[in-house]
Amino acid sequence: MAHVIGGMFEEMGSRVEYVPVDNQAAFEAIRNGDLTIGHEVWQATHQNAFYNAMEKGGLIDAGTHAAETLEEMGVPNWVIEQDLCPGLPNWEALKDCHENFATPDSGGKGRWLEGPQSWHGDVMPNRLKGLGLEDKWMVKFAGTGDALWVELEAAKKEGRGTIIFNWTPNFTDAEGFTFIEFPPYFDGCRIVDGGDMSTTGCGSPRGWLKKAANFRFPVTHPQAYAAFTKVSFTTDQIGTMAALVDQDKMTHEDAAKKWLADNEEVWKPWTASVLEEAN
Hints:
Blueprint: H1 2-11, H2 26-32, E1 37-42, H3 43-56, E2 59-64, E3 70-76, H4 77-81, E4 110-114, H5 117-120, H6 123-131, E5 137-141, H7 146-158, E6 163-168, H8 172-175, E7 177-179, E8 209-214, H9 217-220, H10 222-230, H11 235-246, H12 252-262, H13 264-278
Parallel strand pairs: 4-5, 4-6
Antiparallel strand pairs: 1-8, 2-8, 3-6, 3-7
Helix pairs in contact: 1-12, 2-3, 10-13, 11-12
């Protein structure tokens, strides 16, 4: 998505540099001017860092995408179709099916494969404890985000159940993926946010997907900023972008070029309207 937006800027005559950065450190970098924009701010995991940076000054809210977000543990649809855990997606089904999700490194327990621990800390291990599932399930943290997709493929080939951390929008929206329905989230239910063991079993909130920009961007590049505020991708559009990389194995650069070429009717009105206003 970064290269898609960058391609839009280049079409408008701007030069673009892509800078890899930790997703939590990005907001301070935008505030300080080391980065110009952040194109996807996920409410569930980024809102604290996002609002803290805004409060300090230097970062502005550049609008919200059409896509709604969710970051949660879940299963590929074939797990449900093969009845490996009767009662899913209700979380209470997990009380009686852990054997179908055991792996050689799980000590006989069912395994949840979380993302890297830097993503959410102990949210998922605390959830197991809060729900009283720690005797039957354990959490393993993936070394990288890509390890989640390796696990999906391996579990399907081996015919075993798998529960992994995933999110939407993502390429798995097209493949078929079901998020587990945990007790409803509410502000403060997680231990990291002031909750305790009686509340930390809560699930994840559905939320917005925002865009962030350095406060100088509207002044230094007014046309690019105006186009950026108009950008509003849907779940399907973002899922298609992700599939080009995660399924079709294209580079980010080539995937962006293909998406831009195939979807001119989506993005060209955003850039064209800005250029027309400037003239």
